[in-house]
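Exercise 7. Given the components listed, write out the predicted structure of the assembled complex. Treat all entries as one system.
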Amino acid sequence: MGKFTWTKKDLLSIYDLNAEEICCILDTAEEFKKVSQRNVKKVPALRGKTVVNFFVEPSTRTRMSFELAEQRLSADIINISASLSSLQKGETLLDTARNIEALQADLIVMRHSAAGAHVLLADKIKCGVLNAGDGAHSHPTQALLDTFTIREKKGKIKGLKVAIVGDILHSRVARSDAWALLKLGAEVRLAGPSTLVPREFEKMGVKVCHNLKEAIKGVDVVNLLRIQHERQKAGFFPSTGEYSKFFGLNEETCKYLKPDTMIMHPGPINRGIELDSSLADGSRSVILEQVTNGLAVRMAVLFLVAGCVKK
Amino acid sequence: MNVKKEFILSGGKVADPFSGVEAKRDIGVKNGKIVDPKSLKKAEKIDVSGKIVAPGFIDLHVHLRQPGNSAAETIETGTKAAAAGGFTAVVAMPNTSPAADTAAAIEYLNYHAGRSGVVKVFPCGCMTKDIAGTEMAPIGSLKNAGVVALSDDGKGIQNHELMKHIVEYAKALNLPILDHCEDENLKGDGVMHEGVWSTLLGMKGMSPASEELMVARNIIFARMVDWKIHLQHLSSKESVEQVRAARKRGIPVTAEATPHHIALTDECIKKFDTNYKMNPPLRSEEDRKALIAGLADGTITVIATDHAPHTPTAKLVEFDYAPFGIIGLETAIPVCLKELYHSGVLSISDFVAKFTSGPAAVLGLDDRGLKPGNAANITIIDTERKVKIDANKFYSKSRNTPFNGMTFKGKAVATIVDGKFVFNEL
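Answer.
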């Protein structure tokens, strides 16, 4: 690791981070990945610290990953979900957070359906705030684990060509991945139906494609996303069948990939729609390694952020 | 408030768009009326040299929130805010709770405005019952109760046939229509302008087409029925283009822009501050520039604040869940002086016109202006006085402004209603 020192008490979005900060997290994650490979998978890094997992929007894998990461760092953990929280009784988000703060919690890991909800908390409370996904805005730890996985497999990020295919409009993963990859010098293509990949994305510095073959030609990495039915109204495309026909990655369309193209997916996979089973389970897929790396990345961000929370 | 029976505003520069006068001139006031200063012998001379003396500013678009949400604003606090902002009259939007869709509701407003109103309150009645967009409100009774215009502000009437009937009915009663132009399907559950920033931030967008379609519809009805439709809070470039073309053809449409739409853009939302959330939303820089161009060439004749108070509790929530709207009465003149006058877009008389003769023409008021015999409604502006916006010092009960902490040059320094100083920082 270089001389860089992490200084942020919150992890809100990738957009807020510079390349040095992203690399600091990835380097730290490399160290923590070793912990999970030991017999005793636990370190005392967050002993005596309290972490509240506050999931206002449902989550399985991210929540499990964060919780396990916290346990491996020896933190004390409280889990709150929206259905059990006082939000149901009309309490505002900020009041709930202030109550958590009053219990001297150190970190809040929050998932929320509203974009920017984390900014509201981070500005107003002393606890460190980690974004575990906010609406379609940001999912920084997913982007960090994707970037980590790419760097680990390909040895670098700079100069790589990465295609992200799917429901980009409603995807916080696509936005966060794109920012992380762009900041580290990759070329990013966003692809999907024109209604789900508006041209406005070009302002980020990515290429927008409405044709799968064009999008995946010559790429080093292809990242498939599922259609987020829960976030969208009807009428963006005719049917999942037609979507699959034009944008699904299958034995036929994967002929356009280079032999060493890596296949990624943040999960949950809708098998047979955006990605065929043979590819999801095939040798080019790193989907389960992403999950493994997610643990290391989350340990890293919890550790770094906790070090900057003022008592 | 200091009451003076007669006085002379002396040494100021009069800018009166009603008469076209823009010159150093004294203005006499006696018993609440404008008089020839030479006719006053014992009057106190009030030195306003270096200041602009203008007819009383009218805000065509204000939410006073009473009845229904007096935690956010009341007729008293809202009109005090108006006075402090340099407005001598406000048009009260009818989307109170209950909505102002009955004669009784208008009588309630008139009663409280008479008791606690600091500036003149012009009532505006609903076009449809409970602003539901389904049944015509009792427009004739509303007229008898004293409404000056009709509006379903906050919502657009989606049923075009009903809208056409309302325009026809309103014409017979000589009531102008102030329309909130919005197609609800295209707005969807959007929270900000649909464009680059909504795309980057992953926020649900409100397409400008939502406004532009309804602007087109209203232009069609204004032409067919030959009746005045005033288009509220225009936000998009294409809307401005449509209004420009329609006015060239002599179609009786007018339009307003708000101070925030000419000063701010959707980029401001990147910090998720809900004081940048309003409807219509802040749009792109191109749209902002088009609104200013529309004000410059006379396409847009009115600046109105869309003063929309909300309590801090209501606004200090997730961006998606916050109500639309910001307050504007106490910041309008500083913000607009910066964007339109100090920037050289408008002369002082043209600037004043957007707040005086522009709105007066929409309402058909013919007794404004600094002419002897008219009521002494006067706004005095110091275009050079430095002002730092401090929301905690607002007369408004609410604090939901994006301009808090910003510094501007110029403000209203005195507001006179019927010869009475209702605000005085001279």
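Discussion: The interface with chain B takes residues 92-94, 112-117, 119-120, 135-138, 169-172, 175, 198, 200-201, 203-204, 233 of chain A (CB under 8 Å). Chain A has two domains: 14-138+292-306, 140-289.
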